[in-house]
Amino acid sequence: MAVAMVTTAVEQAPTIDEPVYVGTAVVYQQQHSLRYNPEHPPLGKLIIATGLAFADARLDPAFVGGQTALGRRLLYESGNDPWRLMLLARLPVILLSLLFGLVIFAFARDLVGSVGGLLALALYAFSPDVIAHGSLATLDVPAAGFLLTSVWLLWRARRRPPLYLPLAGVALGAAVATKMSALPAVPVLLLLVVLSVRYARRTHDLGTRGTVRLLALGVAAAVVVALAAVIVVWATYLAVDPRLRWAAMPGHVPVTHGLRGLVVNWLPLPEPYRDGIRIQFGFEDSTWGGFLFGRHYRGSLWYYLPTALLVKTPLGMLALWPTGAVAILTVPRLRPAALYVLLPTAVLLASALNGSRDFGVRYAVFVPMFLAVAAAGVVAARWRWVHLLTAALALFVAVSSLRTYPYYLPYSNEAFGGPPKTHLRLHDSNVDWGQDLGRLADRLRQRYPDEKIWLVYKGSGVPSYYGIDASNPLKVSPNEVHGLLVVSDSSIAKADGRLAALIDSSKPIDEVGHSITIYRRA
Questions:
Q1: How far apart are CA 201 and CA 28, in angstroms?
Q2: Please, what's the largest Cα pairwise distance for the chain?
Q3: Which of 89, 213, 313, 454 lies at a 20 to 30 A Cα distance from 121?
């Protein structure tokens, strides 16, 4: 997994979100300012900043543009080496992703022993989605991993509450201080605190008074865990700016009304965090475009994420996940773990299904992480044939993952044609997130030197930096477009009008990274 992630990180150009996070991390380091990227809390970007501490990045302190322009200025307009900056920014996330693998191993081992731990670790380590997003300087895998760590610590708190409950609170705080999508899991984890305390203090005959006392103890423990999480969130903001200077840009923070506004106003969290929630509500209230199985649509589909997961999950995992979940629900000694492994997954997935942005399975990257632990439940079966079948399915997962190397972002399983066919069914971060600009430059230089290039690129990279001298075919008459027409697959998915006409009248001759298509136009 480490080899796959590091080599992928070395070869990929910046994806769409990364320059914003990297630029914000440098501003955190050099200017101690919270003004950029308030829609996400600071911790994930502080983690990214630990790698950038070795970069000696140059950024004009007088720069006052928006966060997208900030990333472009840092990577391409300030004399920095974007390849080196991006690798240093990605390495801390890679290390963290590897450590989460040890958490998954430990969690599954606690449930069913070392064999189950190794099975869970194998499913995690060969997950194409985890490798793809764990090797980027983004926030999805860190947030999900911190949540999983908190749940594992709560499971261990059933034996030693004083040791593990505060640690679970810290991990929960780290999750919500990384990405606000972790917030729906908070009530579930606080319920698990009560259940862990109840188990740890159980006796055969409590009586009414003893039950009430035990419930009160559990609630008090939940308050302690919540307080630890709140302290972590405050600490991350104070780590950026000890004076907590914050002034929202005019018109940037929408007004939140009704129950949502009341809840946000009462949260015991820093004002920039609460403003970030308001910005996220504004995103959710907007209408975005999506693409699923050849259909471009406006709005969101409740079945988008389950369908995307079906396409982008190795077939062996699709067999082992539900089998392990059934084992956890039916084997008496494993049944208590269902509330710890399956309930948070279900709540987070329900929240993600309700989202308005059908942009990729990265919004559900917690699924392969939590369900890797659930899949370990299959080793509780006593039949030898089950163990042999499990080993065969795990091997199938490994082979499928290795075959897609190093193109993990556009992965889809064999039932849907593999990585070359993913762009026909999904778009955006499922396939093409701008990651192959460097590879495109190499391909054009090696196979198509001195040819006229017309480029429609969806991404945050600057083509000219990579040596791509291209024109925009959408700014001239179609009769002038001759030579190579190069189009990002996400742009193809949403093509209409002039771009669709150009594509229809061109011949595909090559592709790059399963995310960019090259056409010949006479």
A1: 45
A2: 86
A3: 89
Q: Which two tokens stand for residue 195?
A: 């259940």
pTM for the whole thing?
A: 0.95
Cis peptide before 128 (omega within 30 of 0): no
Q: Map tokens 């946000």 to a residue.
A: 264
Return the DSSP state at 14.
P
3-class DSSP state of 485: strand
Q: Do residues 437 and 13 lie in contact, with contact meaning Cβ atoms separated by under 8 Å?
A: yes
User: How many other CB atoms sit within 10 Å of the CB of residue 424?
Assistant: 17
**Residues 6+ away with beta carbon under 8 Å from 341:** 151, 328, 370, 371, 373, 374
> Which residues, other chains included, contact 176 with Cβ-Cβ below 8 Å and sequence gap of 6+?
41, 182, 183, 186, 229, 233
What does pLDDT average to in each consecutive run of 10 residues of the chain (522 residues)? 96 96 97 95 98 95 93 96 97 98 98 97 98 98 98 96 97 98 97 94 74 90 98 98 86 86 94 96 93 95 97 98 96 96 97 94 97 96 91 97 96 97 96 96 95 95 95 93 96 92 95 97 88
Q: What are residue 395's phi and psi, to 5 degrees? A: -65, -40
Q: In this structure, what DSSP letter does residue 270 have?
A: -
Taking the C-alpha atoms of residue 178 and residue 351, their distance in angstroms, rounded to an integer, is 17
Length in residues, the chain: 522
Number of neighbours of residue 38 by Cβ within 10 angstroms: 25
